[in-house]
């Protein structure tokens, strides 16, 4: 059952880049992202606090964690990845998602005093080589830009930080409440950022591309897939992040079907190297740490 849920999550997660690419036919990246988050947050708020009325409001001490999660998982991660998709292919985007488990392990080494074994270091190096192989042809063929890759990398780091922080802050709230506030807060913070960065290039066309993209991104990704992501994180943070290693497989297939993107020998070689890196590192299992150690790290 857990394997089926993990694969289902990965399929849906990799489809977000495809839906975003369609939406970019009709508007700019951050306008699309902000619109998605505000609609999703509004619908979740309506369901949680108006229709059902059984869910708790966050306590005073919980707002800090919700704001941080909103900034990390919505404003920075999703805002950056939406922006990056203007410069990189959907296939390359989904390949970069596989860096998340390695970043999680490295951040645990820095913040939680968790030791990284030699096998894990070698696994990270192999995976990094895979990313280099995938990125280099895209850069030389103008299918991606250095700026796009930097923005994409920033988003992936933010997601990894959010994953570690979510597990350790141990919010005593239902997943749907956490998702409601992180999406809403992240979307609100993104409004002035969108205005500053896109006021000169803004455009919006209300067509089937935009409606279809927003419908998928709001209902399937922001609401459905994020609730499944929180469920997987609560079961095991690292195992949940390890499912992201299968995103290139689904991502490339979806990109070929819906966007007519091609799969090159470089893409296949990069995917193989990244999976080898994962297997060699032993799935990057994070060992439990003492509570006092975590408190000191923060």
UniProtKB/TrEMBL annotation:
Keyword hit for Ligase: no
Domain of life assignment: Bacteria
Compartments where found: Endomembrane system
InterPro entries registered for this protein in UniProt: AA-Vitamin_Transporters (IPR050638), EamA_dom (IPR000620), EmrE-like (IPR037185)
Signal peptide residues on this chain, from the entry's feature table: 1-19
Main location: membrane
Keyword field: Membrane, Signal, Transmembrane, Transmembrane helix
Segments passing through the bilayer: 29-51, 63-85, 91-112, 121-139, 145-166, 178-197, 209-233, 240-259, 265-286
Membrane topology: Multi-pass membrane protein
Domain EamA residues, every copy: 5-135, 148-280
Entries under Pfam families matching the protein: EamA (PF00892)
Matches recorded under PANTHER family: EAMA DOMAIN-CONTAINING PROTEIN (PTHR32322:SF2), INNER MEMBRANE TRANSPORTER (PTHR32322)
Family: Belongs to the EamA transporter family.
Protein name: EamA family transporter
Protein's organism: Cytobacillus citreus
